[in-house]
Design a protein that fits this description.
By secondary structure, the protein is mostly helical. 58% of the residues lie in helices and 7% in strands. The protein is globular, with a radius of gyration of 17 Å.
Length: 122
């Protein structure tokens, strides 16, 4: 696993860790079942505080990208199913909220496209 933290990047270090691990898991660079370094080990190798890496791991676990098995360690989770279910649920909640606000389908879609452009820029 190779991660690079750019201090001058506008994204916070924990977000850079989260995004890079997520991308590597999604692309298959980190296969399902791959054991990730400990929080302290990764923090030390990246020159970050342990709390920064722990925050990234918590976000990744919440997203269903990784799973913690207690003292056995942290592993890349089976891709897709949990993350896809959560995404579908979030999309449904967004659609319901947009309709309650009286937005048209075009307005709701435009807002999502703007958010995606902002999140995935560069």
């Amino acid at each position: 696993m190779t991660l690079k933290i750019h201090i001058d990047d506008s994204a916070a270090p924990y977000e850079q860790v989260r995004a890079q691990i997520s991308e590597q898991a999604r692309s298959g660079v980190l296969p399902v079942g791959y054991r990730l370094p400990t929080v302290r080990g990764l923090a030390e190798s990246l020159g970050l505080a342990a709390n920064t890496v722990a925050k990234a791991y918590r976000a990744l676990e919440s997203d269903g990208v990784i799973e913690t098995r207690g003292r056995n360690g942290t592993f890349v989770a089976a891709a897709g199913s949990a993350a896809e279910r959560e995404l579908a649920s979030a999309a449904q909640a967004y659609v319901e909220r947009a309709r309650r606000l009286g937005l048209t389908q075009a307005d709701a879609l435009a807002a999502v496209q703007d958010a995606l452009r902002a999140a995935y820029r560069g």
